[in-house]
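Aim 2 progress update. The chain analyzed this quarter is reproduced below.
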Amino acid sequence: MDGGQITAIAIVAIIVLGTIIKSIFRGPRHPVVFSDGQAKIENQRLRDEVGELKERIKVLERIAVEKENSLAKEIESLRDR
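Predicted C-alpha cells:
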C-alpha cells in the first residue's frame, strides 16, 4: 500500500471512531421515562399484545401447515371439475 491509501484509511478510521465516541457520549436522544404506575400499565399492555400476536402466529402456522385444506389441493380440485 502506498502513502495515499494509508492516509485514506486513517481518515476513514478517525471519522468512524469520532462518530462512535460522539454517539456514546450523547446517549439516547429521546429516552422514555415512565412512572411506576405507567410502567406497570404499559408492561401489561405489551404483554397482552404479545399474547395476541402469539395466537395469531399459531393460527397462521396451522393454516400454512395443514395438508387437507392447502391452497394447492383446492386449486387441483377446481381443475378436476
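The chain has two domains: 1-31, 32-81. The two ends are 72 Å apart (CA to CA). These observations will guide the mutagenesis experiments scheduled for the next reporting period.
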